[in-house]
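Can anyone check this?
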Amino acid sequence: MNNDSAMLRRERSLLVLLALICVALVGGALYLQFFMHEDPCPLCILQRYFFLLIAIFAFLSSRLNSWRGVRVLEVLATLSALAGLVTAVRHVYIQANPGFSCGFDALQPIVDSLPPAHWLPGVFKVAGLCETAYPPILGLTLPMWSLVGFAVAFLALVLSLIRNRRRIA
């Protein structure tokens, strides 16, 4: 039982680390927006939401004392990472194949109508187009970095779920 408790503490610590990384990635996006003047598109904003959802689920699960609760929130974080992965793949595809936009993105009204866009418009309001390519960072575009972040989070969460599948009390 003591070993199980130690494993749960370790799992919770790893979830806090994952949450902090996701928050830091959103912080990096905000730095690029406000200081480098790289305006976020609808897919950028959706990716922010998914990183924040992963962070919220990871932070919440790190506060629980049972494997069952941790597992439920890890599943929700995994689904958020998968949704972010799909969004990032779509964003990379759009930037690799530009030219289908006429200066308006059909996702903009949907993303701008979500409540956080009204609460924090500077963070969650669309200001750019998805096909706008900004200078790469270490050879990768921002959507590619986002894709890497979601892939790492998804794989870490899936491996955690597989490794701890027998620990539900």
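Reply from J.R.: I decoded it. Helices lie at 2-34, 42-62, 67-96, 108-112, 115-119, 121-124, 142-163.
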